[in-house]
Amino acid sequence: MLEDEGVTCLITDAQWFSTQSVADELRLPRIVHRTSSVSSFLLFAAFPVIRDMGYFRQFSDEEMKSEAPVKGLEPLKIKDLPKFLTSEPEGACKLLVLMVQGTRKARATIWNSFKELEELELATLNKEFPNQHFLIGPFHKYFHATSSSILAQDQTSISWLDRHPHNSVLYVSFGSVANIEESEFLEIAWGLANSKQPFLWVVRPGSVKGSEWLETLPDGFLERIVEGRGYIVKWAPQQEVLAHPSTGGFWTHNGWNSTLESICEGVPMICSPSFGDQPPNARYVSDVWKIGMVLENGFEREEIEGAIKRVMVDKEGTEMKSRIMKLKGKVDKCLKKDGSSYSSLEDLVDYILSFKR
């Protein structure tokens, strides 16, 4: 197969670290494909040190909510350390260590990020992982908006947005995986209602524990509180929603794709991360790039109401909007000819072609 089809390298996701041995056996260079941020990867790379410091073994659930910084990984806090959807976090840690080791052994890594967003992190990466790095993101800008959706998108979201003023609507979506408790769902509902701000709310069927969809909302809630001001759908065309001029804020779980999509459209964020790389992504949004804020105490209606007003109405939100619009401009520039991601993609092609010479 290698001779007939001219296979010159192996490109695999970072999580498939076992493919490094396949590449070695076939005497092929392996290039790692990494879909998340450089900053979260550097956190994962530090896991052995974090583990030795006792963060996973010794801290109680309450202590893991601490605002104290993680020594050597500022601005991250103890509460930002990744949580795993498993009963054996130590096992998940080992898998991440293997992923990092596999990335270190690879010849190069492709990143879903862009240089201007993570310049300092890229400098650290180059020091600690001296192989080739190609930041060619954001990936989603290369594809049609509907091509990667895993659920049916409700296009009525767009016609509903059309009826609202510019930058007036808060878009709420917590992704395709995370689930919430019924009590949290009710706090979200009342926080949205009490904010008096128009909102488009994605409630994925089955995402509220013990509920099929909206059954746990109080009787008459939709009619009394949100009629005309709020709109609830099962799934939305997210990229189109974020690009819509009426969308002024995004309440998100901070998966890396959602975070990048919000940056690309210049929409400030309210952050409610859940697990994996979401907490460190959210911390960078709030404390490093300063283009959003984290709901630090989970889902409490008063804090939700206050956060919505801060992002959508107050001067603080205007400043976030200004900063994220500057990042949006950098995204637009990096994807054009001679931009950083455009040039990095050209370099990647040349790098792959060099294996045939």
Automatic annotation (TrEMBL):
SUPFAM superfamilies from the UniProt entry: UDP-Glycosyltransferase/glycogen phosphorylase (SSF53756)
GO molecular function: UDP-glucosyltransferase activity
CDD domains from the UniProt entry: GT1_Gtf-like (cd03784)
Listed InterPro entries: UDP_glucos_trans
Origin superkingdom: Eukaryota
Keyword Transferase: yes
Keywords on record: Transferase
Family per record: Belongs to the UDP-glycosyltransferase family.
Designated name of the protein: UDP-glycosyltransferase 76B1-like
Native species: Tanacetum cinerariifolium (Dalmatian daisy)
